[in-house]
Amino acid sequence: MTNPYNPELFLPRAIPQKTITQNYPNPSQSSKLTWGKLCLDQMSGKVTYDQQVIRLTATEYNLLELFLQHPNRIFSRRAILDQLWEFDNAPIEHAVTTHIKDLRKKLKAGGLAEEILETVYGMGYRLQTPPTPKVTPATKDITNICQVIQHFRHSFNQQIEVLEQVKVSLLAGNWHEELQQIAKNEAHKLAGSMGIFGYLEGSRLAKALEHLLSQHKTLTKNDIAQFCQLVAALQQELTKLPTVLPTELQALPNHRILVIDDDALLKESLLTQASSWGMEMNIVPDLAAARSYLTAITPEAVVLDLSFPATQEDGLTLLQELANQLPDLPIVVFTGRDSLAERLAVSNLGGRLFLSKPATIEQIFLAITHVLHKPPTPEPKVLIVDDDPLILAEFSTLLTPWGLKVTTLPEPEQFWAVLMDISPDLVVLDLEMPIVNGLELCRVLRQDVKWRDLLILMVTSYTDMEFLQQAFAAGADDFITKPVLGPELVTRVISRIERAGRRKKI
């Protein structure tokens, strides 16, 4: 008779382990995951920022890799545990918070100034939008504005993904006040930023969504249906191209530069890169052609070689003529004749800058840029305070090419420290921000003896007279409504600063 008791049936079963394999990429595929200047090389296992190695633990490395591989996904702490730890070796969920905190600290210590991981309250963590490339002279072109639109398009998808997840929770009956606030914040940011990037209908839909969430603490069945429809419509909008591009924003006029040099290769290189530096290059091979040009057109600057082997003339001759006829015309002497005697002659004849050959194309353009701008006049400083990083990036992109030094601040609670540090000529304040809003900051400024006359431009998505009266009562000099068009922002900021400058001279 068979013994009914079989010990093997009662032994604990071995829990299957996750098999961790190293996925070696094909040679044709990149093994590097990047976020701005941060790079994670899966082949070598190194993490670098601006080519400097950042040492991470295995857990921190895996955590960073997970987010870089899934830039648009929100990971809850439970999901992170499932991804990175074995079932029988997983720590408590609180440990995820600790590891993320440690990862942030090490990245910051390694030189990463921007916050790479965003905390989506009540839901988890996700990768932030990569930092905006540094503004160059080429940003003034409408082509580059379109590139900025494309750069931030996926950020809108991330924000709408949050609304989609809120919709799922809403339909499942998991609705609470904190979740409503999350959805309201995302809708508010989309209402302000989508219009700037050409999605005017998306901005309207986001405003309707924000209004819906602001009106009711408890959503009815009709409200829920409307919420779902608005989220679906927002998703549909991002499948389209922007309906209105900021074509009204005119680039600064190109600086007209005359180059007098017979080097054909130099001519080709200068012409290729001139537009990206905001310059219109007119290049002539000798002094006779230069004189002919100068009788018809006065350039904003001249680049002059001193030697012309095909003729007997010397560049110093033309330099003397220009010193007599156009004494204020800035001239960069670019020559291979580098001696103290030559430098003294150029200086005595009014040459603004002496650049010896050979020099890189960048050095030439930097020299021209230097003589075009008058160093005694400091750049007007603008401080922009808004909790939406998309709006901060776009405002900075629009204003910087116009000779303004722009500082952006996403945390209004740090306003006073930043204000004291940079001493701006004008501040742009978003009326509605969490923790501290624009009206409160405006009142604080008007109460201070030092800052009571500081120029304040208020930005708001509201057009009701009540809100506008509040803005002016708080002390705002001007206001602008969202979605903000580039030409309007530039005109308001520059005209205010110029008028204030004229008043100071009176």
In angstroms, what separates the terminal alpha carbons? Answer: 115 Å
For the CA atoms, what is the radius of gyration? 30 Å
Oligomer: single chain
Task: Specify the CATH homologous superfamily of the largest domain.
Answer: Response regulator
So what's the CATH class of the largest domain?
A: Alpha Beta
Share in β-strands:
5-15%
Number of helices: 18
What do you see in this structure?
The chain is of the alpha/beta class and about 500 residues long. It has four domains: about 30-125, Winged helix-like DNA-binding domain superfamily/Winged helix DNA-binding domain (Arc Repressor Mutant, subunit A, Orthogonal Bundle); about 135-235, Four Helix Bundle (Hemerythrin (Met), subunit A); about 255-370, 3-Layer(aba) Sandwich (Rossmann fold); about 380-505, 3-Layer(aba) Sandwich (Rossmann fold). It is built from 18 helices and 16 strands. The protein has a five-stranded parallel β-sheet with strand order 8-7-9-10-11, sandwiched between helices. Strands 13-12-14-15-16 form a five-stranded parallel β-sheet, with helices on both faces. Helix 5 (about 140-170) runs antiparallel to helix 8 (about 220-235) and helix 6 runs antiparallel to helix 7 (about 200-215). The longest helix is centred in the N-terminal third of the chain and has 30 residues, at about 140-170.
Keywords:
5-stranded parallel sheet; globular; Arc Repressor Mutant, subunit A; alpha/beta; Rossmann fold; 506 residues
